[in-house]
Amino acid sequence: MTDSSTSVKKSTRPFHVMAKPAGAACNLRCDYCFYLEKDLLYPDRAGIIMDEAVLDAYVRQVVESQSHLPEINFAWQGGEPTLAGLSFFQRAFALQEQYAEGKKVFNALQTNGILLDEDWAGFLKEHEVLVGLSLDGPERFHNACRKNVQGEPSFKEVMGALKILHDHEVDFNLLACVNRYTAAAPEEVYPFLRAHGVGFIQFIPVVERRVSEPQAGELSLIAPDDDRAAEVTEWSVPQGSYGSFLVSVFDQWVRRDVGRTFVQLFDITLESWLGADPSLCFFRECCGDALILERNGDLYSCDHFVYPQHRLGNILEEDLRVLSSSVQQQAFGDGKRDNLPGQCLSCPMLKLCRGECPKHRFMKDENGEEGLNYLCEDYRRYFSHTAPFMQFMAQELQHHRPPANVMAWIAGREEGVQSGRGRPNDPCPCGSGRKFKKCCGFSGKRS
Fold first, then answer.
1. N or C: which end of the chain has fewer CB within 10 A?
2. What angle do CA 83, 193, 107 make, to 5 degrees?
3. Pairing mode, if any, of strands 71-76 and 200-205?
4. In angstroms, rounded to a whole number, what is the distance separating the alpha carbons of residues 414 and 409?
5. Alpha carbon of 400 to those of 157, 257, 261, 296, 386: distances in Å?
């Protein structure tokens, strides 16, 4: 073990740690869950809840690592974190108050909502916890993959949790997994989520590979660099479908919901158009600053890379700051940039997608080089389609005008094209300040 007192002082690498207080334990058996089988990594461990020593070390070390910031952030996920019990989080928040010494503390909790009740809602509201509620869409889509231990659908229970959160005015957003089924119905999924949420939606593409010949006691959903024979699972989003889904949702959103409904991917894309570093690791040049803590204190490089080769150490033996800035973790984060295939390096969309998540890079590019993202064509279509709208919104923001002006701009374009009014070199009737032929007079069809 290294001398952490010296290493901690030298470590300045920013990082964020998401804790799994109940590990992979869950009260649902979602078809596409990539985490449930992670319990195979800890076959001899008794109990499923993070113990007092690990909890204390986690809270203390996070506070110390963020002591230079105005706000200290914690994130809790699973499995299902509420299985740890309300008393666990009461202890955790008491430790936060003890170690933070008056600093503002912010907590985020991702949950399937099954265990949420009045007591939970009151606690979450009191402590201003931001809740991420997993809801894939209308009942038939949600229930297609998200069932309980008995194999029964979970939609009604989740909608009950949503009502409790609404009634108690708990801040929450909706997280929807885009799988084979939901990807085919963006015109149903997005309006449903928009109507039942509070204005914030995240879409997460489901992409997993299952080893062709799984062995008993071993993980069957494998890492992208695993060279065993494997196939994309039947519930993963098909290539091409995710791009179509994103384009459809974007077209719905950009015409009526800008400034009212916030879709994470659209916000991230706009950040890139503004020249900012994207706030989501998927679209940053490098990654490695979003680590995951298992219930026994083991720290891994990323939530999507909980495999033995990506274990960094244990926080009961080494400080978070030392582990997060280790040579191993630095190489992991830089690998996102350094391991792109030639097709990516010559792609005009690279500045926007950055190769997306390394977990999805298990394809070969057009030259047979390893490391192409499974969703490459989907993102190319999405970024290409949204470019003129993103450019307009970015320009509005740069001129201190609301990006929601894009809705009137689009309406003007479409009205001008339909009516055929305006000579090519006249000012565009939509008020953009450009010539009609460069704006609403554009007759090309965007895919």
1. N
2. 40
3. unpaired
4. 9
5. 43, 19, 20, 49, 21
pLDDT tens, position by position, 15-35: 999 999 999 999 999 999 999
Reported as a single tens digit per residue, the pLDDT across 291-321 is 999 999 999 999 999 999 999 999 999 999 9
137 near 188, Cβ under 8 Å?
Answer: yes
In the chain the first and final C-alpha atoms are separated, in Å, by 56
- Among all chains, which residue has been given the structure tokens 């003007």? 412
Single pTM value for the model? 0.90
Residues serving a catalytic function are 303
**Sign of the CA dihedral running 410, 411, 414, 420:** negative
Asked whether the predicted pLDDT for residue 78 surpasses 60, the reply is yes
Q: What is the pLDDT of residue 1?
A: 40
Residue 286 CB partners (closer than 8 Å, separation 6+): 333, 334, 336, 337
- Residue 106 bridge partners (DSSP): 73
For 28, the 3-state DSSP assignment is strand
Residue corresponding to tokens 């008995």? 150
**Model confidence at 91: pLDDT above 70:** yes
Sign of CA dihedral 115, 120, 125, 130: negative
82 and 124 Cβ atoms separated by less than 8 Å: no
Q: Please give the Cα distance from 337 to 431 (Å, whole number).
A: 41
Q: Identify the CA nearest to 286 among candidates 372, 358, 349, 373.
A: 358
Q: What is the mean pLDDT of the segment spanning 169-187?
A: 98
Q: How many CA atoms lie within 13 A of 212 on its CB side?
A: 6
> What Å distances lie between residue 437 and 176, 396, 412, 422, 431, CA to CA?
40, 21, 13, 9, 13
Tokens of 258: 């800008």
Residue 192: how many CB atoms within 10 A of its CB?
A: 20
- Half-sphere exposure of 234 toward its Cβ, with a 13 Å CA cutoff? 4
Find the angle CA(90)-CA(92)-CA(97) to the nearest 5 degrees: 95
Residue 12: what pLDDT? Answer: 55
Position 7 pLDDT exceeds 80: no
User: Which residues are within 8 A (CB) of 3 and not within 5 positions of it... i.e. 6 or more apart?
Assistant: none
- Mention every residue, 6+ apart, whose C-beta is less than 8 A from residue 312: 291, 299, 300, 301, 323, 324, 326, 328, 329
pLDDT at 215: 86
